[in-house]
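Lab notebook: predicted structure, single chain.

Context: the supervisor wants predicted structures on file for every construct in the current expression panel, including those that have not yet been purified. This is the next one on the list. No modifications to the sequence; it matches the entry in the shared construct table.
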Amino acid sequence: MWAGVFFSLAAGMMWGLVFVGPLMLPEYPAALHTFGRYLAFGVIALPLAFLDRAELRRLTRADWLAALRLAAIGNVLYYLFLASAIQRAGGALPTMVIGTLPVVIAVSANVLNHQRDGRFPWRKLTPALALILLGIACVNHVEWTALLQNPQADTGRYITGAVLALGAVACWTWYPLKNADWLRGHPERNPRVWATAQGLATLPLALMGYGLFWIWQGLTEAAFPMPLGPRPLAFAGLMMAIGLFASWLGTLCWNAASQRLPTALAGQLIVFETLSALAYAFMLRGQWPAPLTLAGIALLVAGVIAGVRVKAADR
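Prediction complete. Output recorded below exactly as produced.
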């Protein structure tokens, strides 16, 4: 069990990197952060695909189309929303909003009648949702107050960032439900191979997106230098680091944790990602979180833990 906790902590610390990448290179557009990250991840998936080539050949055209949809929405569109939200609203609020995913997914499964695992009792989910909303409200109050005290701040940009964070939540609420549908509909397929297939499906999307962004920059005569921007070594290094650690090694550690821990406990430990991302964001700011921010984080963690402990009924 302690090994499982260690692996889940390692996964959360690496996944937290994706929340601070846009803050480390704020002069780079969110589109470049997105396409650069998944271009790196697609390149990393190529040797994995070679090892699994026999299993990948068994995938049908319909399977590859499903992998393409999952990669487009769960990878590219999700991170495009998230990176844009972080650059507009800062790191704290989008991270808190994304941290609600374990409970939001359970709520969405109820609303959409996605009942393969049974319905979750609303009366037991409601307290968890209340804690989560209160936690987000606390952090938002601190961030909004600091924004209003800055005469050069753009409140419209902050609000847009919050809305984009909700878009990221919508993408990654859809993704696990549809991904689970495919996996359960194909029990004979190896989940590792399916993950590699999605990595391969992401590569052409990232290449196409990168190319279209480059063309658009040329047509608009924008001042942003392509293909690697004003800090090419920093950008290339950050994209490879996020692609390697967050997209590949983080998932590997999470799979190792999932093999060693009960599902209910593993679900609670997803909060390591949120806590790591918040810690990185405040480290980049060079400041300690305000007391109300810490209270909001504690409420979010309590709400997520309470939510994932709710057992599905009516199987």
